[in-house]
Prior knowledge:
The structure holds 2 protein chains of 2 kinds.
Chain A: E1 4-5, E2 10-14, E3 19-21, E4 24-25, E5 32-39, E6 46-52, E7 60-61, E8 64-69, E9 74-79, E10 88-96, E11 105-106, E12 110-115
Chain B: E1 4-7, E2 10-13, E3 19-25, E4 31-38, E5 42-49, E6 56-57, E7 64-68, E8 74-78, E9 87-94, E10 108-109, E11 113-117
Parallel strand pairs in B: 2-11
Antiparallel strand pairs in B: 1-3, 3-8, 4-5, 4-9, 5-6, 7-8, 9-10, 9-11
Amino acid sequence: AQKITQTQPGMFVQEKEAVTLDCTYDTSDPSYGLFWYKQPSSGEMIFLIYQGSYDQQNATEGRYSLNFQKARKSANLVISASQLGDSAMYFCAMRETYNQGGKLIFGQGTELSVKP
Amino acid sequence: NAGVTQTPKFQVLKTGQSMTLQCAQDMNHNSMYWYRQDPGMGLRLIYYSASEGTTDKGEVPNGYNVSRLNKREFSLRLESAAPSQTSVYFCASSEKTGLAGGLYNEQFFGPGTRLTVL
């Protein structure tokens, strides 16, 4: 079974508008962490934001925020005021505590295109 | 601070050839990882090393071997390359995580190696 699901293979957004990228996850571990990474066309993986399962507030980092709905097992990334440089692949990932190695489980990714 | 470095950046192999992908980090991280990225598949874990001296299989270990040479270096070896191993390979590192450490330890990624097996 998929542990991380990103149902939007591709998204378009107009420059300066906000966009939400969906991520749902599946785990029986009560303690876990959720990450979002950005991969521009140049190929590098850039860490954006983190949310812990016990965090009371939704995480925010600049124009990025995470809409964390624990009961629904969703951790959607919200990008406000989109910029052309936001065009990239975006990956949601999860780390579970039983996993001593700290490995991440990734979703399939969403390709975001920002239109001028 | 170079972060995570990988060599080579590009490689073309013939079926049956062997090669080793090198990875090094200068952040004194305990844990290191090898992922492969295929179109539409996200990143999948091949092998990881939670700490120096240990290695474990990930989701797709078949056809690969790894060596954690020291705390800095973690290499990935393809003994007999197959076309199905054509992919982009990423090495990553992080501080120790899990029950003994924090959940929040972002993984830092290298620039990737683009491997084609003909």
